[in-house]
Amino acid sequence: MGEVSSKLLCRLGPVTLPSPILAASGTAGYGTEGFGYMMQDVVGAIVTKGLSLDPKKGNPPPRIAETPCGMLNSIGLQNIGLEAFLKEHMPTIRKEGTRVVVNLLGEREEEYLEGVARLAEEGDIVAVELNVSCPNVRKGGLAFGKDPEVIYRLVKKAKSHSSTPLWVKIPPDGTNFVEVAQAAWEAGSDAITVANTYVGMAVDVEKKRPKLSTGTGGLSGPAIRPLTLYRVWRIARRAPVPVIASGGIGSARDALEYIIAGASAVQVGSASFANPMVYLEIARGIEAYLSRHGHRELGEIVGSLRGMPEDSV
Question: Is the pLDDT confidence value at 211 over 90?
């Protein structure tokens, strides 16, 4: 039931996966919660929720709010910490043969570097995805991913600490997202994940209060897909490394938009809450598309977009 065609073989730099469909960070727990429906061949890899060196309690509730065509979350990076993950979850992941990418976060450069080095000791982590949307406490709380120079230095040092493939998940905010991505690949990132959630808010009009305890949160879901698709296209047409798209994917057609615009793989997140079988449906849909258009493999349609005006920005 869960097998997919070899046409879906996905190459992400040094990483080869049986499928381009990944479970997005924050939606598949620590990689052990979804064995019942995340079929091994259908889901190329599971990206863990963000992990820090030390456990984080996260934000107080309410921290989830539904919006038209999406959802806001303000989890606050709650997690059990890297060592607890390695002790409590990696044995099961190894037993089940799950391919896992660790989403790593930090507030200081040293935290990222220590985490990357620790994960290199495990030997069977598919890749480390640096979450650079975190506040850099040494830069007055400015997110790492907003400063290309900081990103370049961080990625360069991270690569020197480990031979594990390294992905960088950039924030979508600001106008310099191409420069941020370029800094990452010039420093040695093996792939770029585009992108994280968008800052948004929702108001309870009866109570005249924000729906989230923190006031604002990260918007995900179908509402952000056109915004992220634009960012994927802008970055992919220049990037010498694979681009992984993440944002509002709930169907094969959604995934194909990203792939044709230049993404080599897609991360599916919010859609899996409403439909746990969405991974299989997307895989089957992409397979059908490839067959219908006479393509022998996924790579033939990556970046195959035509008709964009030359002066598009």
Answer: yes
